[in-house]
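SUBJECT: protein chain
CONTENTS: sequence, structure tokens:
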Amino acid sequence: MIYKKKYIVVFLLFLLFSFDTYAGDTFTLTLLHTNDIHGRAVEFYHDEWEQVAGGFARIAALAQDQRRDNPHTLLFDAGDLFSGTAECSLTQGKIMLLGAAITGYDAIALGNHEFDYGRDVLAAYIEHSSVPLLSANTFWQSTGNPFAPGYTFFEINGVSIMVVGLTTPSTPTSSHPHNTVGLRFAQPEPIVRQLQETYGDRYDIPMILSHLGLDADQQLAEAVPGIHVIVGGHSHSRLEHAIQLNDTIIAQAHQWGLYLGRIDLTIQNASIQSFTAALLPLDERVAPNPLVRSLLEDWLQPAAYDLLDETLATTAEPIARSAPWWVGDSALGNLFTDSLLWQTQADFAVYNNGGLRDDLAAGRITLRDLYRVEPFGSTIQTLKLSGHLVQQLFVHMARRGGDAVAGASYAVAGTAPQDVRIQGEPLDVGRTYTVAVSDFLAAGGSNYWMLPRGQVEQEHGLVRDGIAAFLLAHPDYEPAVDGRIRWQRP
């Protein structure tokens, strides 16, 4: 009996000694991350790099290499997997969820563009996705219940990690307003504080997958102490080595799956002692995972996809968007609004620059290209607006830096419109005008509050189809900057 007690005491001492050694063990926790992939499930030709890049097959291959080097590794995405390519639009995002699942993502934050196929579609994805889709600040208005799981926990080498997802509160105006009816997007700071109070004793390392944008991430880090890591998205920021603000590490990996972000945290006694961060290019030097590639390419085999590559037009010069710091019209904005005006015969047409999602390269223009520059499936609407509402419309356009227009012209002086002309004549506040816009703007998207006050006159089909028809009907059309929007000194 005495010997048994001795064995028990020795065994308990062994366990205690082992636990102390384990708890104080120093190890590296690796966080891999992407953001704003925007529908690029498969590799694509990147003009700036002049080579093929991106795609889940490359992300999977590089993530697998990193995990071989360090089994204490997690893979995250900070939102906006959806919207940006024909493949994503035609599958309503399913291709992206399939890609994320077979690539081995551990959690994904909901971005504003995850709502582009509608609230109910996304709700079904949240329920059935094998990868947690997180948003702690999105709620059903009627009940106050969470729309999605807000957080998840991971246990790595005895260390508890709480991962919280946050979605930009501007989602109701940065996705189609109809897509978020019945939902409320709360400000993030109170939500994070509440989670800290509720679960502070359950985690060692708190981190956030944030689809708020870099400025908002920095504000959050300053306002709420105790956040160890913020992996961000929404602003498409390329942070080569991450930012440390107070005690918070803030990282973001640019866009489109061009980079895999890597953060290495040195952990001792369940706390972060130091870190390093880098962006790993997903270029041709990374050989794609052949299984992931074949699974995704098999998904994309239907014959309907061949129609996407038929030539609609050719252009000698690139058709580009305006640089964000320059007020003026752009070749791509002019193409969009010229096609809307031709399709509808309205007095003038307006398109938000934020809806121009990519440039068109010189050469062939295909339907696949149009899905890339207009991935949302927006429709064309004509509205009857009073002259006073049209005046407010141009005020809003000027404050936004000069959204695209056809059938009209205006100057931007500071943030105010000057010399507004419609069909060559000065704006007359006493008459009624017909304006062609996307249904996104007609519903008040991008804070165009005055457009829902107009009277809907007619629906005219998809914006994308209207551009295709316009290009086929105008084979000699070459979009160009022609000065319909000008900057002048106030």
